[in-house]
Design a protein that fits this description.
Blueprint lengths: L4 H12 L9 H20 L11 H12 L4 H7 L5 E4 L17 H17 L3 E4 L5 H23 L1
Parallel strand pairs: 1-2
Helix pairs in contact: 2-3, 3-5
């Protein structure tokens, strides 16, 4: 499991008094998130087995494109493809919390979710929505979905 780039950026920027923070310079923050997501993708590709990334390149590039209008999403997403099957957690008001790093409210989370539920399929990804169940049950759901997909992939190769 790879921690989301945003939290790592916030920790690093806060430690040095930097300004690439979403509440100070969102564009700089998103550009840093893109760079980290590309590095995370390359590191994951070097390993066998599944790697789970909490957030990634598409999330950051879609946000930067929405913010600036710069056409960054498709070129980046084409150059750095993830597995076709993407798991996405819908906004869940019962467990959503803000903290020192996540300062945006639930409405902003819903807007981002709505943007990404159209962005990922437009880029050719199969989005699987995670059910609103316990963390352990969600983990089981993901593993079962991956096992099902792997079984279909093996059968299709025969």
């Amino acid at each position: 499991m790879v921690e989301e780039p945003g939290r790592r950026i916030i920790a690093a920027e806060t430690a040095v008094g930097g300004t690439a923070l979403p509440w100070i310079d969102l564009a700089a923050f998103l550009r840093r998130a893109i760079g980290i997501a590309i590095a995370d993708h390359a590191a994951a590709a070097a390993h066998d087995g599944w790697t789970f990334l909490d957030r990634g390149l598409v999330d950051a590039a879609a946000a930067l494109q929405a913010l600036t209008g710069d056409e960054v999403l498709r070129p980046l997403a084409t150059a750095h493809r993830y597995h076709r099957r993407m798991f996405m957690a819908p906004p869940w008001p019962e467990i959503y919390v803000t903290d020192d790093d996540r300062r945006h409210g639930f409405d902003a989370a819903v807007a981002e979710y709505q943007r990404l539920t159209t962005t990922y399929p437009a880029l050719g990804y199969d989005v699987v929505l995670l059910p609103k169940i316990s963390t352990a049950a969600r983990a089981d759901f993901v593993l079962a979905a991956l096992a099902e997909r792997k079984g279909r992939d093996i059968a299709n190769r025969r």
